[in-house]
Protein backbone atom coordinates (compact mmCIF):
# COMPACT_ATOMS: atom_id res chain seq x y z
CA UNK A 1 0.00 0.00 0.00
CA UNK A 2 1.45 3.32 -1.05
CA UNK A 3 -0.01 6.79 -0.81
CA UNK A 4 -0.91 8.29 -4.15
CA UNK A 5 -0.91 12.06 -4.17
CA UNK A 6 -2.76 13.54 -7.10
CA UNK A 7 -1.37 16.88 -8.12
CA UNK A 8 -2.42 17.32 -11.69
CA UNK A 9 -0.59 19.63 -14.04
CA UNK A 10 -2.89 22.60 -14.80
CA UNK A 11 -4.70 22.25 -18.12
CA UNK A 12 -3.21 25.57 -19.19
CA UNK A 13 0.28 24.01 -19.31
CA UNK A 14 -0.25 22.28 -22.62
CA UNK A 15 3.43 21.38 -23.05
CA UNK A 16 3.19 19.10 -20.02
CA UNK A 17 -0.51 18.31 -20.28
CA UNK A 18 -1.50 18.12 -23.94
CA UNK A 19 -5.07 17.16 -22.99
CA UNK A 20 -5.63 14.58 -25.73
CA UNK A 21 -7.91 11.75 -24.65
CA UNK A 22 -6.47 8.31 -24.01
CA UNK A 23 -7.81 4.88 -23.25
CA UNK A 24 -4.69 3.32 -21.73
CA UNK A 25 -3.55 0.06 -23.29
CA UNK A 26 0.07 -0.01 -22.16
CA UNK A 27 2.18 0.91 -19.18
CA UNK A 28 5.60 2.39 -19.91
CA UNK A 29 8.29 2.23 -17.23
CA UNK A 30 11.03 4.82 -16.91
CA UNK A 31 13.85 5.76 -14.59
CA UNK A 32 14.28 9.45 -13.86
CA UNK A 33 18.05 9.33 -14.54
CA UNK A 34 18.35 11.92 -11.80
CA UNK A 35 20.49 10.71 -8.92
CA UNK A 36 20.61 14.06 -7.13
CA UNK A 37 19.73 14.19 -3.48
CA UNK A 38 16.09 15.18 -3.07
CA UNK A 39 15.15 14.21 -6.64
CA UNK A 40 12.14 12.33 -5.35
CA UNK A 41 8.54 12.09 -6.55
CA UNK A 42 7.56 15.36 -4.92
CA UNK A 43 10.41 17.18 -6.64
CA UNK A 44 9.42 15.77 -10.02
CA UNK A 45 5.87 16.89 -9.34
CA UNK A 46 7.13 20.43 -8.75
CA UNK A 47 9.30 20.21 -11.85
CA UNK A 48 6.28 19.42 -14.02
CA UNK A 49 4.06 21.99 -12.32
CA UNK A 50 6.75 24.62 -12.85
CA UNK A 51 6.79 24.01 -16.58
CA UNK A 52 9.58 21.42 -16.88
CA UNK A 53 12.07 24.06 -17.98
CA UNK A 54 10.02 24.70 -21.09
CA UNK A 55 10.29 21.11 -22.33
CA UNK A 56 7.39 19.33 -23.96
CA UNK A 57 7.21 16.47 -21.53
CA UNK A 58 4.65 14.96 -19.19
CA UNK A 59 3.92 11.56 -17.70
CA UNK A 60 1.36 10.08 -15.33
CA UNK A 61 3.14 8.94 -12.18
CA UNK A 62 6.43 9.37 -10.36
CA UNK A 63 7.24 6.78 -7.73
CA UNK A 64 9.87 7.02 -5.03
CA UNK A 65 10.62 4.96 -1.93
CA UNK A 66 7.89 6.71 0.09
CA UNK A 67 5.00 7.69 -2.13
CA UNK A 68 3.53 8.16 -5.57
CA UNK A 69 2.67 11.43 -7.27
CA UNK A 70 0.15 11.45 -10.08
CA UNK A 71 0.58 14.28 -12.56
CA UNK A 72 -1.98 13.49 -15.25
CA UNK A 73 -5.42 11.87 -15.23
CA UNK A 74 -5.38 8.42 -16.76
CA UNK A 75 -7.75 9.32 -19.57
CA UNK A 76 -5.28 11.83 -20.97
CA UNK A 77 -2.05 11.03 -22.73
CA UNK A 78 1.34 12.49 -21.97
CA UNK A 79 4.66 12.98 -23.76
CA UNK A 80 7.17 10.52 -22.37
CA UNK A 81 7.75 7.62 -24.77
CA UNK A 82 9.80 9.38 -27.43
CA UNK A 83 7.92 7.75 -30.30
CA UNK A 84 6.48 10.90 -31.82
CA UNK A 85 3.26 12.86 -31.79
CA UNK A 86 1.17 9.92 -32.91
CA UNK A 87 3.28 7.19 -31.35
CA UNK A 88 1.47 4.40 -29.54
CA UNK A 89 3.78 4.84 -26.55
CA UNK A 90 2.87 8.48 -26.17
CA UNK A 91 -0.76 8.13 -27.10
CA UNK A 92 -1.77 4.88 -25.43
CA UNK A 93 0.47 4.26 -22.48
CA UNK A 94 0.53 5.28 -18.86
CA UNK A 95 3.99 6.67 -18.12
CA UNK A 96 5.63 5.83 -14.82
CA UNK A 97 8.92 7.30 -13.68
CA UNK A 98 10.80 5.48 -10.93
CA UNK A 99 13.09 7.73 -8.90
CA UNK A 100 16.75 6.95 -8.38
CA UNK A 101 17.77 9.82 -6.10
CA UNK A 102 20.85 8.85 -4.12
CA UNK A 103 19.20 9.66 -0.78
CA UNK A 104 16.32 7.29 -1.56
CA UNK A 105 15.98 3.53 -1.34
CA UNK A 106 15.85 2.44 -4.97
CA UNK A 107 14.76 -1.11 -4.10
CA UNK A 108 11.80 0.24 -2.18
CA UNK A 109 10.93 2.61 -5.02
CA UNK A 110 10.90 -0.37 -7.39
CA UNK A 111 8.66 -2.31 -4.97
CA UNK A 112 6.29 0.64 -4.83
CA UNK A 113 6.25 0.76 -8.62
CA UNK A 114 5.44 -2.96 -8.72
CA UNK A 115 2.50 -2.30 -6.44
CA UNK A 116 1.30 0.65 -8.52
CA UNK A 117 1.60 -1.20 -11.83
CA UNK A 118 -0.37 -4.13 -10.41
CA UNK A 119 -3.19 -1.78 -9.44
CA UNK A 120 -3.18 -0.20 -12.90
CA UNK A 121 -3.08 -3.57 -14.67
CA UNK A 122 -6.14 -4.63 -12.68
CA UNK A 123 -8.04 -1.43 -13.09
CA UNK A 124 -7.43 -1.02 -16.83
CA UNK A 125 -7.23 -4.70 -17.74
CA UNK A 126 -3.71 -4.34 -19.05
CA UNK A 127 -1.93 -7.64 -19.58
CA UNK A 128 1.66 -8.30 -18.55
CA UNK A 129 2.84 -8.23 -22.20
CA UNK A 130 1.74 -4.62 -22.37
CA UNK A 131 3.93 -3.45 -19.54
CA UNK A 132 6.95 -2.22 -21.45
CA UNK A 133 10.12 -0.18 -21.20
CA UNK A 134 10.66 3.28 -22.58
CA UNK A 135 13.33 1.58 -24.70
CA UNK A 136 10.62 -0.55 -26.32
CA UNK A 137 9.15 2.56 -27.97
CA UNK A 138 12.14 4.66 -28.85
CA UNK A 139 15.32 2.71 -28.21
CA UNK A 140 16.35 5.04 -25.39
CA UNK A 141 18.38 3.44 -22.61
CA UNK A 142 15.47 3.69 -20.15
CA UNK A 143 14.61 2.53 -17.50
CA UNK A 144 18.36 2.39 -17.29
CA UNK A 145 18.53 0.61 -13.94
CA UNK A 146 15.91 -2.02 -14.75
CA UNK A 147 16.72 -3.00 -18.34
CA UNK A 148 19.19 -5.70 -17.32
CA UNK A 149 16.70 -7.18 -14.87
CA UNK A 150 13.53 -6.58 -16.88
CA UNK A 151 12.48 -10.23 -16.95
CA UNK A 152 12.71 -10.45 -13.16
CA UNK A 153 10.82 -7.19 -12.79
CA UNK A 154 8.00 -8.51 -15.00
CA UNK A 155 7.83 -11.70 -12.95
CA UNK A 156 7.16 -9.62 -9.86
CA UNK A 157 4.18 -8.04 -11.58
CA UNK A 158 2.61 -11.35 -12.30
CA UNK A 159 1.10 -12.22 -8.92
CA UNK A 160 -1.45 -9.47 -9.01
CA UNK A 161 -4.44 -11.73 -8.38
CA UNK A 162 -4.91 -10.77 -4.75
CA UNK A 163 -4.84 -7.04 -5.32
CA UNK A 164 -7.92 -4.96 -5.33
CA UNK A 165 -7.92 -1.47 -6.70
CA UNK A 166 -9.84 1.12 -4.76
CA UNK A 167 -10.42 4.14 -6.94
CA UNK A 168 -10.10 7.66 -5.52
CA UNK A 169 -13.19 8.70 -3.63
CA UNK A 170 -13.78 11.89 -5.53
CA UNK A 171 -13.05 13.57 -8.79
CA UNK A 172 -9.98 15.67 -8.36
CA UNK A 173 -9.80 19.13 -9.84
CA UNK A 174 -6.59 19.75 -11.70
CA UNK A 175 -5.21 22.26 -9.26
CA UNK A 176 -6.21 20.46 -6.10
CA UNK A 177 -4.04 18.17 -4.05
CA UNK A 178 -5.77 15.10 -2.77
CA UNK A 179 -4.32 12.14 -0.99
CA UNK A 180 -5.96 8.82 -0.90
CA UNK A 181 -4.91 5.40 0.03
CA UNK A 182 -4.99 2.79 -2.66
CA UNK A 183 -5.35 0.20 0.01
CA UNK A 184 -6.65 -3.29 -0.31
CA UNK A 185 -8.96 -4.99 2.14
CA UNK A 186 -6.01 -6.89 3.53
CA UNK A 187 -4.09 -3.67 4.09
CA UNK A 188 -7.13 -2.09 5.66
CA UNK A 189 -7.69 -4.93 8.09
CA UNK A 190 -4.01 -4.94 8.94
CA UNK A 191 -4.13 -1.20 9.55
CA UNK A 192 -6.88 -1.59 12.11
CA UNK A 193 -5.08 -4.51 13.66
CA UNK A 194 -7.44 -7.25 12.66
CA UNK A 195 -6.55 -10.64 11.37
CA UNK A 196 -6.80 -10.44 7.61
CA UNK A 197 -7.17 -14.14 6.93
CA UNK A 198 -9.91 -15.28 4.60
CA UNK A 199 -11.80 -16.69 7.57
CA UNK A 200 -11.66 -13.36 9.38
CA UNK A 201 -12.74 -11.48 6.28
CA UNK A 202 -15.63 -13.89 5.85
CA UNK A 203 -16.74 -13.14 9.39
CA UNK A 204 -16.57 -9.38 8.83
CA UNK A 205 -18.44 -9.77 5.57
CA UNK A 206 -21.24 -11.51 7.47
CA UNK A 207 -21.19 -8.78 10.12
CA UNK A 208 -21.52 -6.17 7.40
CA UNK A 209 -24.35 -7.96 5.67
CA UNK A 210 -22.46 -9.43 2.69
CA UNK A 211 -23.85 -12.86 1.98
CA UNK A 212 -21.94 -15.75 0.41
CA UNK A 213 -18.58 -14.05 0.76
CA UNK A 214 -16.05 -15.67 -1.53
CA UNK A 215 -13.36 -13.02 -1.37
CA UNK A 216 -13.88 -11.73 -4.89
CA UNK A 217 -12.44 -8.32 -5.71
CA UNK A 218 -15.93 -6.85 -5.96
CA UNK A 219 -16.89 -8.26 -2.57
CA UNK A 220 -13.65 -6.98 -1.06
CA UNK A 221 -14.33 -3.50 -2.35
CA UNK A 222 -17.89 -3.68 -1.05
CA UNK A 223 -16.62 -4.83 2.33
CA UNK A 224 -13.91 -2.19 2.44
CA UNK A 225 -16.39 0.56 1.63
CA UNK A 226 -18.79 -0.70 4.26
CA UNK A 227 -16.02 -0.90 6.83
CA UNK A 228 -14.95 2.63 6.01
CA UNK A 229 -18.47 3.89 6.59
CA UNK A 230 -18.62 1.99 9.84
CA UNK A 231 -20.76 -0.85 10.98
CA UNK A 232 -24.47 -0.29 11.00
CA UNK A 233 -25.42 0.25 14.61
CA UNK A 234 -26.97 -2.88 16.01
CA UNK A 235 -30.47 -2.26 17.25
CA UNK A 236 -30.29 -0.94 20.78
CA UNK A 237 -31.92 -3.08 23.39
CA UNK A 238 -35.38 -1.69 24.02
CA UNK A 239 -35.37 0.45 27.12
CA UNK A 240 -38.43 -1.21 28.66
CA UNK A 241 -36.81 -4.63 29.02
CA UNK A 242 -36.35 -5.56 32.68
CA UNK A 243 -38.36 -2.59 33.91
CA UNK A 244 -41.46 -2.40 36.06
CA UNK A 245 -44.86 -1.81 34.50
CA UNK A 246 -47.67 -0.26 36.51
CA UNK A 247 -51.29 0.56 35.86
CA UNK A 248 -52.23 4.24 35.63
CA UNK A 249 -55.80 3.33 34.75
CA UNK A 250 -58.45 4.51 37.19
CA UNK A 251 -60.53 1.39 36.70
CA UNK A 252 -59.55 -2.27 36.78
CA UNK A 253 -56.91 -3.09 34.16
CA UNK A 254 -57.05 -6.61 32.78
CA UNK A 255 -54.04 -8.83 32.49
CA UNK A 256 -53.90 -12.12 30.68
CA UNK A 257 -52.34 -15.57 30.93
CA UNK A 258 -51.82 -15.59 27.15
CA UNK A 259 -50.89 -13.03 24.51
CA UNK A 260 -54.53 -12.23 23.87
CA UNK A 261 -57.26 -9.64 24.40
CA UNK A 262 -59.88 -12.34 24.88
CA UNK A 263 -62.10 -12.44 27.98
CA UNK A 264 -61.32 -16.15 28.13
CA UNK A 265 -57.64 -15.44 28.86
CA UNK A 266 -58.05 -12.80 31.53
CA UNK A 267 -55.93 -13.84 34.51
CA UNK A 268 -56.84 -10.95 36.79
CA UNK A 269 -57.10 -7.17 37.26
CA UNK A 270 -54.67 -4.46 38.28
CA UNK A 271 -55.73 -1.50 40.40
CA UNK A 272 -54.12 1.84 39.71
CA UNK A 273 -50.57 1.82 41.11
CA UNK A 274 -50.28 -1.96 40.90
CA UNK A 275 -48.25 -3.81 38.32
CA UNK A 276 -45.50 -6.29 37.54
CA UNK A 277 -41.82 -5.96 38.45
CA UNK A 278 -40.28 -7.21 35.23
CA UNK A 279 -41.02 -6.67 31.54
CA UNK A 280 -39.67 -9.56 29.45
CA UNK A 281 -40.63 -8.41 25.95
CA UNK A 282 -43.19 -6.63 23.84
CA UNK A 283 -45.48 -8.62 21.58
CA UNK A 284 -47.96 -7.66 18.90
CA UNK A 285 -51.42 -8.90 19.70
CA UNK A 286 -54.07 -8.15 17.11
CA UNK A 287 -53.79 -4.44 16.36
CA UNK A 288 -52.13 -3.56 19.63
CA UNK A 289 -49.18 -4.50 21.78
CA UNK A 290 -48.80 -6.26 25.08
CA UNK A 291 -45.89 -6.54 27.43
CA UNK A 292 -44.95 -10.04 28.39
CA UNK A 293 -44.22 -9.69 32.11
CA UNK A 294 -43.22 -11.71 35.13
CA UNK A 295 -44.61 -11.30 38.59
CA UNK A 296 -42.47 -11.50 41.71
CA UNK A 297 -42.77 -15.27 41.73
CA UNK A 298 -41.63 -15.62 38.12
CA UNK A 299 -45.03 -16.43 36.62
CA UNK A 300 -45.62 -15.05 33.14
CA UNK A 301 -48.56 -12.78 32.23
CA UNK A 302 -49.50 -10.31 29.52
CA UNK A 303 -50.69 -6.75 29.96
CA UNK A 304 -51.41 -3.92 27.56
CA UNK A 305 -48.38 -1.88 26.44
CA UNK A 306 -50.49 1.20 25.73
CA UNK A 307 -49.17 4.25 27.59
CA UNK A 308 -52.79 5.30 27.98
CA UNK A 309 -53.17 2.62 30.64
CA UNK A 310 -49.75 1.83 32.01
CA UNK A 311 -46.40 3.44 32.78
CA UNK A 312 -42.97 1.86 32.61
CA UNK A 313 -40.29 2.77 35.11
ZN1 LIG B 1 12.27 7.08 -20.03
Written description of the protein model:
By secondary structure, the chain is an alpha/beta fold. A hairpin with a 5-residue loop joins strand 13 and strand 14. The strands form 3 sheets. The protein has a 7-stranded mixed beta sheet with strand order 6-2-5-3-4-1-7, with helices on both faces. It has a 5-stranded antiparallel beta sheet with strand order 10-9-14-13-12, with no helix packed on it. Strands 11-8-15 form a 3-stranded antiparallel beta sheet, with no helix packed on it. Helices cover 24% and strands 22% of the residues. It has 3 domains: 155 residues, 3-Layer(aba) Sandwich (Lysozyme-like); 35 residues, no CATH class; 68 residues, SH3 type barrels. About 8% of the residues have low confidence. It is rod-shaped and about 100 Å long.
Largest sheet: 7 strands, mixed
How many angstroms does the end-to-end distance come to? 54 Å
**Which band does the percent of strand residues land in?**
15-25%
Instruction: Output mean pLDDT.
Output: 86
Name of the CATH class of the largest domain: Alpha Beta
Low-pLDDT residue spans = 160-183
What's the count of strands?
Answer: 15
Q: Could you say what the CATH architecture of the largest domain is?
A: 3-Layer(aba) Sandwich
Amino acid sequence: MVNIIQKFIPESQTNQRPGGKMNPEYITVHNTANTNKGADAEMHSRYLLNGAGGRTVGWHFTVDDKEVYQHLPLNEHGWHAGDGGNGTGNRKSIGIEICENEDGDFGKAVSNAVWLIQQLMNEHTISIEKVVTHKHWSGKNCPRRLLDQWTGFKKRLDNSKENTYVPPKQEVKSDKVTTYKGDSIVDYLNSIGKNSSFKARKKYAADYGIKNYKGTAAQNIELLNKMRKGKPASKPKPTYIGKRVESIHNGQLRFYNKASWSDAHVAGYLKKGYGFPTIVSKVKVGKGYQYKVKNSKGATYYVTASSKYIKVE
